[in-house]
Design goal:
five-stranded mixed β-sheet, 18 helices
Length: 492
Amino acid sequence: VIMKFSEFAGYLERLEKISSRLAITDVLAELIGKMELAETSKGIYLVLGQLGPDFANKEFGMAVKMVIRAIALGAGKPIEEVTGKYKQKGDLGLLLESMEFENEKEKKHSLGEMYDYLLAIALDGGPGSQDRKVNKLADMLLEVGPLERKYIARMVVGRLRLGFSAKTIFDALSKMESGNKDLRKELDSVFQIYPDPGLITSVVKEKGMSGLKNIKVVVTVPVVPALCQRLNEYGEIVDKMKDVAVERKYDGTRLQIHFNRLKNEVKTYTRNLEENSWMFPELAQMGKWINGDKIILDCEAAGYERETGKVLPFQITMTRKRKHNIAGAAESVPMRFFVFDILSKDGESLIEKPYFERREILARTITPNDVVVVDEYVRTDEQEEVKRMHEQYLSEGFEGAVIKMWNGKYLPGRQGWNWVKIKEVEGNSGKLSDTLDLVVLGYYYGRGKRAAFGIGAFLVGLKKNESWVSLAKIGTGLTDDEFKSLRKETTN
């Protein structure tokens, strides 16, 4: 039976009221079991407050003010009135749950229909798209009940936040398949090479766990990047890892490059799996430097000085994040991509191959050029050599060394003693202190779950001469009770 969106909203309400992780897992397992196969992936995305996997970049592009316009239009009320009520509630969902819509014509939309409608709103772009988004959302709010409106609004502004992630989805999927969490590790392993919880859930639901063997590393689907463990004793590093390769640690931005010659396509992804291809126009020339048709590379991107070739600090590199005038930014801050691994070539996954073999393939894959550069490494099994290279890299202005097991596989995430970076030691130049003592200068009103606290985040800073200068917005690291008590102290 196709699930109605009203029933799905009922599950969201149940999940919102639960704090126990085990109870959340049980409700999610029940929800996954009840959804039809054709709507399962859509339901998984929506329960996570998304329209697809993280790497797909399917965002609504609607700020709170636009949603307030849609609410006012749908409810036939002045924007000022809706804005005032929103400020009282601090949560669009609670506002809509409490509002009456005089002209509502409630329809029984299915879960799949609602997903498709929301996706159409998100994908609407170009001239006049903001007005069209507002009108479409206003029309939809008239066709659903108060509970559905509550969760639609939260999804649209990215504040569904039911307190769990894809990992809890996999706990529920494992429980549905085996009655316990024993399958979680296998599900996590697949997610690391194909991070799409909707697809994985649908495959298991249709074919069982055996269906996962057909999910492979694919160009334009980012692999969860391998991360470093930390050690600070050179002897301990060699004892644990034996034969190693020592590489430079760049002060750049981690990047995964996906190249498809057949589609004339280059995509880049951050370590958090977000696509940021627009930042790097120089990669449009990728085809000149690659021997192969479909390639996935792991690298560190860093700005550099044309005159000296010196790598620039991270803060300068990341001026590329400003979307306006990207061509000008590319001219003023040229970028070099220091490639240290290859994950796939021409349809063959390479992550199971040992480091040294991947490095040999990498060397054959990239033609020497000034933009996409194969990073150097030094092989050793001597702790003194590791120490010497680390200190040399520091003296050259890099962040030290990354040490990798010579025969190690590419292990997504932070696994084992496969990749290691040396802990920063006191006296390293150019490093910031771990902590800053700052003063609370103000606070932001709570939204969503924090509406009841009265505070959502703090503005902190320090005194410079006779003036106070704000430095950061802090919204994490506090318990619910601490937020409430600080609200009282701030207003007394």
